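dumping this here before i forget
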Amino acid sequence: MPGLFTAILSVFCYSFAYVLLHKGQVETEAEDNGLFPVLLVGSITLGIAALVFIVVKYHGFGFVGSLTKEQWQGYGLASLSGLIGTLAGRLVVYAAIRRIGATRGIVVESAEAIVTTVLAVVLLGEVFRTNDFVGVALLAGGISLLVTERTFLKERFLLNQGIVLGLLGAVLQGGGHFLRKVGMSASIVPVIAAALDLMLALLVYVCILWYLGRLRKYFRHYIHNWNPYLVTAGIMSATGVLLFFAAVRAMPVSEAAMIVGVQPILVTVLSKLFFRRLEPITWMTGIYSLLVALGIIMLQT
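structure:
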């Protein structure tokens, strides 16, 4: 029961983070679509959580000397996932959400589950099961329905852009999830791995902004246009990660992942409840959100 409750809280945090992100994007109109503050707040949140865990569990950093070669490689893969999935993936997905909204953005981005599954089959030799075929078909059907919906909505060009960006983000984030999956097989500490993932993404992003001469500009923009929605989105996203790791300590990973799979439906509901005028929600939105959620669940079972 504690694991189930924690998993439910996790998917709520994940989902609400996307809705709050879109609200913050609309209000701030930042060039990077809110990536900088979300990475910063998330890194601080997970960094503190990892530090507390290290102090309480290991009483300091002495455990580093006892890490095996496989564990070092695991943490290295977790860090690399931060560059591919977290930095590059979020940069593209956030741009997609800016154009098509949180509801449609998360539906397209859910195609990452297909990417992760295919990489596991090709590179790790995992078996492509019947459930995987069904899951891929449901995901493809849901995304196809979203593409069809374009003809009924205005700003079709932005929808086309958003769908393309969302699919690219799905490939990048799917690759990131695959690296995390391989890294976690080395028995590394999840909260430390998650902190390394996000903190390296932030560090590299700051270096890129500095090199491009945009760091001061972005910093000033977010200081002068401080937005509670973006800050809360960063906290909620990091909290979702922590709660998911807590959930898998009390229940099977597959069951926790199934619960998180309802995220597309929950994003639709939360967007409709709290920010009704933020993006158009149609009957087709509900159908393809349900199809995508079922597809994710099938891929996880």
